[in-house]
Structure formats: structure tokens, C-alpha cells
Amino acid sequence: MPENDDTPPTVRDLAHQLSGAKPMRRGTLSVQYLRCNKPRCACADRPDARHGPYYRVVRVVDGKPRSRHVPAARAGLLRAQVEAGRQFRKHVEAYWQACEQWADAQLDATDATSQEAAKKGGSKKPSTRKSRPRSKRS
Length: 138
Description:
This protein is an alpha+beta fold. The chain contains three helices and three strands, in the order H-E-H-E-E-H. The protein has helices at 9-18, 42-45, 75-119; strands spanning 28-34, 51-61, 64-70. Strands 1-2-3 form a three-stranded antiparallel sheet, with helices on one face. A hairpin with a 2-residue loop joins strand 2 and strand 3. The protein starts with 8 loop residues before the first helix and ends in a 19-residue tail after the last helix.
């Protein structure tokens, strides 16, 4: 982000936080335990016996859920990536709010300047051009 003299420090700090690239992802981590329903499997006989855990990340793309299965050994990495994505979204929202406050301050300063000019008399309406009187010879 180019540095301006009038950039508020809050906006500068938030922009700096957003500039750090790291692997992250959108979505939620889902953990499942499943039954295979094979006749001789323990999950068929006992309701508490299930296969798993199976990990996947789920997110919505174009209104449809998309998921990706991940081995249990990589679940910790997936959890960290999802959390990094959540933190990024929080930083983006904070950045938006800081920029909007900055924009509001600029508008308020402009409004105050124009109100001050109005109190002092400000600029008057420009004079309107009057048409020439018609010639009486016609």
C-alpha cells in the first residue's frame, strides 16, 4: 500500500497485517465417523462402533457445497489453514471498518468546510445574463 501522509495509523497497521502471505483456506473442518453396514463388521452390531475419524474441509462455491477429504495425519495442518482463513477475514473486516471511518472523516471535514463558507456568506449565485432589449425600429 502506498504510504500517504494523511493515512491514519490504524489503516496502515491493518494493511501491514493483511500483506503477510500465508497458506489459508475458506470453509470448515468436518470430522465424520461412519458405518459400513457389512454384516460381520463391528459397526453393524454395535451402535457406538464406527469407522473413522474421516476429515474433510467443506465450503460453498457458487451456492453448492464442495468438500475435500484429508488424511487424519494432515488434519492438524488443515485445522491451522482454516483458522488462518478465519483470522484473515477478521482482519479484512477490520480494515474495511477503518477505511470507512477514514472516508467518513474526510466527508465530515468537507461538510464542515462548506458550512463554514456558508456562514461567512460563501459564494453568491452567479449573475444571470439578461437579454438585450429589442430594437424599436423593427
